[in-house]
Amino acid sequence: MTKFRITILGSGSAMPTTLHNPPSQLIELNDKLFMIDCGEGTQLQMRKFKARMSKLHSVFISHLHGDHIFGLPGLLSTLSLLGRTADLNIYAHKEIDFLIKPFLVYMGKHMTFKINIINLNPESEELLFENQSIKISSFPLKHRIETNGFLFEEKKSASHIIREMIDYHNIPFHLIYDIKRGADFTTPEGEEIKNETITVPGTPSKRYAYCSDTAYAPEIVPYIRNVDLLYHEATFAETEAKRAEETYHSTARQAASIAKMAEVKKLVIGHYSSRYNEFGLLLKEASEIFPETELASEGKVFEL
Amino acid sequence: MTKFRITILGSGSAMPTTLHNPPSQLIELNDKLFMIDCGEGTQLQMRKFKARMSKLHSVFISHLHGDHIFGLPGLLSTLSLLGRTADLNIYAHKEIDFLIKPFLVYMGKHMTFKINIINLNPESEELLFENQSIKISSFPLKHRIETNGFLFEEKKSASHIIREMIDYHNIPFHLIYDIKRGADFTTPEGEEIKNETITVPGTPSKRYAYCSDTAYAPEIVPYIRNVDLLYHEATFAETEAKRAEETYHSTARQAASIAKMAEVKKLVIGHYSSRYNEFGLLLKEASEIFPETELASEGKVFEL
Questions:
Q1: pTM above 0.95, yes or no
Q2: Claim to verify: residue B167 and residue B217 sit in the same structural domain
């Protein structure tokens, strides 16, 4: 089974605290390491939690508020000190040039690898990366500036052919590939054997969705329906619902409502406001709506 | 007596480790808070060690390598979130514009305070700040790029006039200010009373010098002679002397030689290479030359 592991590096928000680092997480999927957001201190968190920098495949930046990007110069600089040669793709909104271009000019010939900036589409769903086993896409969230959520998914694995059926129908080896991918089998006598009678479904594909930062936005539900794990920001408790609305953030209860509407398997909340130093209330408010809720915290790992 | 306190926020070097943060320290002097260097995560270290962000007076950047500056955007952004209104002076080499200007454009009208960049002179000693009780100056170090050290000093306090002598010579009140600052006293009868017979010296002024990053450079000795505390980089142990020379860094023994030549009272070494996870050897090599040596570490406080 594929490894599909999310590690929280930072679950705080704009104002740093001693309890939580600015936003960042790592998605390990099919032996590739992806990063979502890169707040200040992200590379230090990678060291702390023993993430392998050399495995980093690409970086996805949800939006260009400082707490989601100020760790980039340090991370890129360290990757260069480590002698990385592979290109690094950074998926972000186009204004990221303000941060990256001066940095590249500054680093100049000291950079050991190339950075490719791929602009996110803030208007609609878009496929960002795909190989034979995984798929990563983005979709619009609702924040003060252009912001995107991300969906990481395994591709549906091929069906398994039933061993006994190969013998029983005398299925030739060269047809097995197509049958695993849904083809029916026609016997030499012309009898059609339906695919579902000779196969069992493959491992169900797992899906992870990241939604931060965002106001309460039921319009995102179609993008994240039925995911195995949803990370949704919950900056505020319900007492601060007005503040959440004004700042285009969500309350814990709103995060849980989205999880419920989208019928996800599990919800993780984070992006806590610096006003809280205790998070039981946020968990309680979310769990009342959606019991399968867990609090994010630095170093916590979620395996799908 | 004036408070003169140095707090180490980071004593590592370019490559972050789990043991040491990138360079930064706070100098609390006469109720003002100054920062030297601002590596990634500095604002998080300030939180951790309960430094009062609102007290920050100005920032001194020794040179523009990433590990000394990548914490600036986050720090400036947080000061703005906290509603700072006082100007912030940043003393740095002129190329810092590459980092600050795009940041200011990005922050735009969200910045609540003004940043003044004051260019350091990489060629010779220069006074940077002075008020009635303290003085801050910079002087050139020897590194791969333009780099300056900093000297923080209390001004020599006025002498104390001897109470009994006021009565004995019948010294009028309006002359006391000048006598405390070195004037002799002439009696109404024309007799000249030498200053040293009617005063005792004031509290001796304390001095702190910061020298990082730098190769072994005896030419800096005149700038730091007799300081009470010298922070001098000691990136490498003696086995790496060649590497130190190539990269314009110092070994612990070289740092101690400088301390000895300058006849300082105490030496603190830091800016450790990420190759070390144990620092006893560096301390040993320095102490053999200069016994009054101490290792820097995050959160350590030196009171002068």
A1: no
A2: no
